């Protein structure tokens, strides 16, 4: 029927009958099926390029020392050397580094989530003089590069005798404006009627926050927690500056020490990198539902 209409009314109506036709440079056009195939190919190409370094890392991790050091490397191992897993743990205290990283990333994530939720609730619900100006100043701190504040933070931590201690590593990263901004936008999207109904039933402001606002904002809070945990898991700069011993050294710093102390044993280094990547992949798949839902609802509810 569409082709008959196109023949009856000419090329202009044919274009109207297929509004999804895609234009290419030079005036050429693609039919909708061809455009979908092109889009799928582009998605496949981007995914393949993104996964190539990860696949290469895993393949080299199971190679022998000779293969990984070869001048003409073959990325597919001739034999799968699974003993490299044990060798990576034997050469450095990788298990200790993993536990330190879980403690560091988990501690900063927990503290920042709590402080960001409280600050976001104050900016979203409480009315006080200078609230908008204070929130603007708070957001302006996002434009300050982390490297600029690194030395002042280290001086403060050193004067408080916090170098190579857990409070010195965790507390400076327990407050960020990004988390406050994310949760504030989500809190603004929650109808005030829910909170006012709880207040009429006798709940005070703290009870309304913990029993009404927080349960409704769980997707956004989970999204913030996942972002924070992954960011601190991969954080290299601050642990590298503050940590001086294996007691507090995280796995990101440990990989650097691993490389220094073992030269160019790339198979073992990449095996350690593969081991440290597994917890993040597991975390992402466990929280994928909350992660996607939180991003979607934050974008729709923000204003």
Structural summary, described in words:
Mean pLDDT is 81; it is low at 1-20. A two-stranded antiparallel sheet has the order 1-2. Helix 11 (192-200) runs antiparallel to helix 12 and helix 15 (251-261) packs antiparallel against helix 16 (266-286). It has 303 residues and is an all-alpha fold. It has helices at residues 2-9, 11-17, 32-61, 65-69, 84-91, 94-125, 131-140, 146-159, 166-170, 177-188, 192-200, 205-216, 218-233, 237-242, 251-261, 266-286, 288-301; strands at residues 22-23, 29-30. Strand 1 and strand 2 (29-30) form a beta hairpin.
Secondary structure elements and their pairing?
Layout: H1 2-9, H2 11-17, E1 22-23, E2 29-30, H3 32-61, H4 65-69, H5 84-91, H6 94-125, H7 131-140, H8 146-159, H9 166-170, H10 177-188, H11 192-200, H12 205-216, H13 218-233, H14 237-242, H15 251-261, H16 266-286, H17 288-301
Antiparallel strand pairs: 1-2
């Amino acid at each position: 029927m569409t082709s008959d209409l196109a023949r009856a009314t000419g090329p202009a109506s044919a274009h109207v009958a297929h509004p999804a036709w895609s234009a290419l440079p030079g005036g050429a056009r693609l039919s909708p099926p061809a455009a979908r195939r092109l889009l799928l190919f582009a998605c496949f190409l981007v995914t393949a390029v993104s996964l190539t370094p990860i696949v290469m890392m895993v393949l080299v991790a199971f190679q022998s020392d000779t293969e990984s050091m070869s001048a003409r490397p073959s990325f597919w191992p001739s034999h799968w050397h699974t003993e490299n897993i044990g060798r990576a743990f034997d050469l450095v205290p990788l298990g200790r580094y993993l536990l330190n990283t879980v403690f560091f990333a988990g501690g900063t994530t927990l503290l920042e989530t709590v402080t960001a939720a409280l600050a976001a609730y104050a900016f979203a619900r409480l009315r006080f003089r200078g609230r908008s100006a204070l929130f603007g100043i708070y957001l302006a701190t996002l434009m300050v590069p982390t490297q600029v504040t690194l030395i002042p933070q280290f001086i403060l931590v050193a004067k408080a005798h916090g170098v190579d201690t857990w409070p010195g590593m965790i507390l400076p990263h327990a407050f960020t404006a990004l988390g406050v901004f994310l949760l504030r936008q989500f809190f603004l999207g929650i109808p005030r009627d829910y909170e006012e109904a709880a207040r009429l039933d006798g709940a005070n402001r703290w009870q309304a926050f913990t029993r009404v606002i927080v349960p409704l904002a769980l997707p956004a809070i989970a999204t913030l927690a996942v972002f924070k945990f992954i960011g601190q898991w991969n954080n290299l700069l601050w642990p590298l500056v503050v940590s001086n011993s294996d007691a507090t050294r995280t796995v990101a710093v440990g990989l650097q020490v691993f490389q220094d102390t073992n030269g160019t044993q790339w198979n073992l280094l990449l095996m350690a990198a593969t081991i440290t990547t597994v917890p993040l992949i597991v975390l992402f798949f466990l929280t994928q539902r909350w992660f996607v839902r939180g991003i979607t609802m934050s974008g729709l509810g923000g204003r």
